[in-house]
Amino acid sequence: MANTKRKIGGEDTNITFEDQQQINTFARKSARIQELKDEIEQKKKDLQNLEDAGDEVMLLDDDTAPIPYPFSTLKNFC
């Protein structure tokens, strides 16, 4: 296949098409892993918020008091 010369660290280095494909694959997978880690962190925050809200509801003294709840967050759980 085709070779490409690239200057890496002051030296010319040959990178084959296959090498470049592997580099691209690695970069895509690495980016996806970071996206998933970010998503997990957001889910952990959401879970903590829901647990906190559940604790607050349990601590209510008045059983007839209305419980405010934003319905916009329901779409994340359906």
Automatic annotation (TrEMBL):
Annotated coiled-coil segments of the chain: 26-53
Keyword presence, Coiled coil: yes
Range of residues in the leader sequence: none
Record-level GO cellular component terms: cytoplasm; prefoldin complex
One BP term from GO: protein folding
GO MF terms, alphabetically ordered: unfolded protein binding
Keywords from the UniProt entry: Chaperone, Coiled coil
Keyword Amino-acid biosynthesis set for record: no
Superkingdom, taxonomy of origin: Eukaryota
InterPro entries membership: PFD_beta-like (IPR002777), PFDN4 (IPR016661)
Family stated for the protein in its record: Belongs to the prefoldin subunit beta family.
The protein's name: Prefoldin subunit 4
Species this chain originates from: Stylophora pistillata (Smooth cauliflower coral)
Organism placement in taxonomy: Eukaryota, Metazoa, Cnidaria, Anthozoa, Hexacorallia
Gene, per the UniProt record: PFDN4
